[in-house]
Amino acid sequence: MILGLDTGTRTLTDAEHLLHDLVKVLGLPAGTVACTHFVRTGDGPPHVACSLTVPDTLDPGALPEGSGVAFGHGRSGPADLAEGASLAAAAHASGTGGRLVLFPGHDELTGTLGVAEVVARSGIDRVVVLAHAGDPAPDTPVVTNDFVRPQWRDGEVVLLTMPAAGGRLTPAEVPNPTPCCADHG
Amino acid sequence: MGHGHPHGHSHDHSHPHDGHTLDQGDLAAVVDTSIPDGELSPGQVSRRQVFRRAGLLGAGLTAAGVLGTPAAASATTPQHTGGDREPRGGYLWLAGDHHIHTQHSSDGVYKVSDQVGHGAAYGLDWMVITDHGSNAHAKIGVEKVNPDIVAARRDHKDTLVFQGLEWNIPGAEHGTVFVAPGRNEVSTLKEFENSYDGSVKNAGASTPQNEALAIAGLNFLAESVRRRRVEAALFLANHPARKGLDSPHEIRGWRDAQPEIAVGMEGAPGHQAAGIPKPNGPGSGRGFYDSTPGADSWPGYPPESYKTFGGFDWMTSTVGGLWDSLLAEGKSWWITANSDAHSIYADTTARGGGDFNANGRYDDPTYGGTLNVNAGDFWPGFYSRTHVGARSFSYLAVMEAIRQGRVWVDHGGLISSLVVRARQSGTGQLGVSLGDTLHVRKGSKVEISIEITLAGKPNWAQVVPTLARVDVIQGDVTGPVKDKDVFTTPATKVVSSYEVGKNTGTVTFTYKVGAVDRPVYVRLRGTDGKRSAPGLLGAAVDPHGPAIDVFGDADPWNDLWFYSNPIWIVPRG
Fold it and tell me: Are residues A73 and A153 in the same domain?
């Protein structure tokens, strides 16, 4: 089953920490699919909700207090967060939205791998290149930076990449993007 | 000093003048007020006195004006203060940069004098100092920076130095806000920052309340101008697509709330060295465009929007994209290109110490001893230039030119000058310039004349750039859209291209718009032809547009573009 969870956090970093904590606390197995979702609910600011695959026998008591929860047909928590949790779970279930933090084969995607290898080793269905029509050649190297965050698109798990040095590709999402008001070197 | 005196004025003329066969170089020296009287011959001094007594010196008198070219003889004759600022197409084209940081930014380094000195040396005529809005800046920095700016004005008489700030737009990205110098420039900026900065007011999140606060800030600026507290104020959105924070409806909202204040956006962001490969460069995204969506990002933007194309922001580089969707509404909305200079690529300067929050600035910078190859910025004027067609060399004239959209931009000195005129064919009219609207009778034939002075000299990378091609982009003006979040328009495309392949001299083209039966607009784009790809909306729209920049391998000197702002053509009857 898919659990939707919304603590109202504003950042992807916090949401990812939460997902990793939950996997540990709930004892979830390898192959768990854990996602982040941008949601706009209630009167609060836009924020990041989470979804993850869990056993039917989940104990909701292990979830953070005060968060919104969507599990099966049940919803709990503050209305705006419950709605965020519900949106996250629904997008995950339908494969229409969400950014995958954990997924089958996630740990295998390190270093530089060919496009075909990325697909073979993991739950990623397709690799696409921004601003390029058509699929990249299967042997095109992908520099993973050990940081791979594919997303749900039309029921598929798609890794967005961009051109990188030396005719290679790299995920469009880089590990440490320049902060808003950065110390530019 | 950035400007020499290329008139070749001679001090030993011996041939007689009868007043009708004036030698331009000779007259130029006489009217060039940057040349002291003591450097002129006695005859030249007496002629200068004639002009001075007539009130003409430095007040619109130019060599070309006296020689009577139609453009210069018009009521819009610009002032010519000397140096290499030649009037072109009736305007004084002044290069500038409205996005520059100093030690008064928490991520800044340099003194105001460092930035202005370099910018002037690299050929800029005007600059805006835009330190980040912050608590420390709002409380201390906004005042502390002013004496430094006043000193820079005194030390660089050929350079106009504005005080502004980089506004954290509530609910959105950053933007340049600046005002005309005057008694209230600091107090106006300070009140604005304390009341409307997204960081100071903790109003960064994308909420309706914060979006309303941004509009209130623009209204404050407009009110400050209306009450003559400051003579002029402008706002331009910076790196608008970088993090997806400026939604289409916010951009439309700013522009529609105060069209005389909110006039445009960076067509190209700064940080153009950020894509230089490691280990000799930062190896990041060009423009430090290395972000992906966050919670506050507008969900409708495609992933490509977070990247640059030929160094330009996706909103501008996409033919038929967001910028064109505004122009197709008939909305004035102009583009610029700036340095966003914080830390200069391969410079040896190190940030000074000190308590930024307590002092409102860092101590003066020091020698760092090593090349900072992780820095991604060029000095103002070194790479990115915003050229504005001013009616005179003055603060208000620069602001007026920006407000009117008499603006084109380039990277790496791709071209030296661009004069564009739309006119009714066969009438001998001078026509209208960039940012303007040509009104004609329905069915009249219209043409666009394009005159480009090619690079002609090396840029600051010692390359004389070759202009490979010029594209004419045309779209229909279809009026206001219902959906304020629209970011495409269907009828805009590249309609004509001219191959050039030269880097010296002047080239002219005439693009025949033909008989005009509906409102249209035309804008130009040119390239060194080093990198291109079909546009994001298809090859039928843009067959050879800018390519997506390669992450970590974008040599800014081998992918140069210029963009003009549009001219509208509106038929009547």
Answer: no
